[in-house]
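user: can you give me the structure for this one chain? tokens are fine.
assistant: on it. calling the predictor now.
[tool input]
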Amino acid sequence: MKFLLLLLAILVGLGGCNRPPKTAELQLWTIQLSPKFDPLIKPMLADWESRNPGVKVRWTDLPFGSVERKVLAAVFARTAPDVVNLNPLFAANLASKGGLLPLQDRLGQAKATYLPEILQAGEQQGELYALPWYLTARITLANQQLLQQAGYSKPPRRWDEVTAYAEQIKKRTGRYALFVTVVPDGSAELLESMVQMGVEFLDKRHRARFNSAAGRRAFAFWTDLYRRGLLPREVVSQGFARAIELYQSGELAQVATGAEFLSTIQTNAPRIAAQTAPYPPLVGKSGVANVAVMNLAVTRQTSRPKEAVDLAVFITNPENQLRFARAARVLPSSVPALREIEQELLLATAAAGKADLVQQARLLSAQTLSQARVLVPADPGVKRMQAIIYGQLQRAMLGQLSSADALLAAEKEWNAYAAARWP
């Protein structure tokens, strides 16, 4: 009997030894990439898994409009993903709450592969919290027919040329020159224009610096354009989608957007597309343009930080960035990948001549990156600051306050909020 019990114990032990080891899992959350890019991303993740035996990646793709809410809910519930796709502003907000893993000392030589100016968009107080993944450098798409009617061969390059240009467009064509929204939760394009006009928003204590000579000029600039009827009335009530509608209907001389929007125009408004040409973006005296960044961050809740960082670095390495940039027609944040994309676009544009406007626009967008950076600082309270600045600027545009008084009101409102959040 004792022998049988011993034999049974041995067999049970051997059976336990034959069980496969438990597979570890990393969760990766991205924004609006599936199912279009499944053929690219799934093999890439399988490649990483083959290099990391015993670790599987569960990929979840979220709609653009729900990602912030779901990530915050997951962090609060302590079920946050290991690696998550964010924009710089949300990453900064999450990092300020202690939600992201510092990466500065975890990258090794990989850090040198990223565009330095773009990598800085993932920093907070000298610490790196996010890796840049893919980029969009805004350019100007302009209706050449409207430009010619107004006496222009090309749109202006500098903001200080815009007022005279807008006057001529309105006087000679009855159309508007441009559309920049002032809806508080809309595009940050107007904030970006203020940076290009020399405005500094915040000091190191998060207190307002925008009520300055440059800030007063910027507020007066936008207030004057609106009050004189040189901006569409809807800029105070509608977002960037309205700019697209107006441009496609021939009511707008130019729009600031990514190169790929040309394909949309060609589909939705072929007559306008035939009149459209790409040009460099509007800039200030410094010549610096804006770039939009999507990045990858590692949450502090990850139980496998080494593997999570390795996955984020792998997805954003030069080879994988190059593949994704080709497939998605975006720009990579990797120095070697960007060089390759730019060379490919140069060759394609030379072969196609002026026939392929999309290729021209993508090349121009890639070339813009040499003078581009994330213009609005990734401060954790920047969305609140935008809402305050836009709200007070609306009051000035609508004649409720002078532009100087509106700027002063914005300064007071922001500083009251900052004093409560950062005593």
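assistant: here you go. The chain has a mean pLDDT of 91. The domain at 24-136+293-360 is CATH 3.40.190.10 (D-Maltodextrin-Binding Protein; domain 2).
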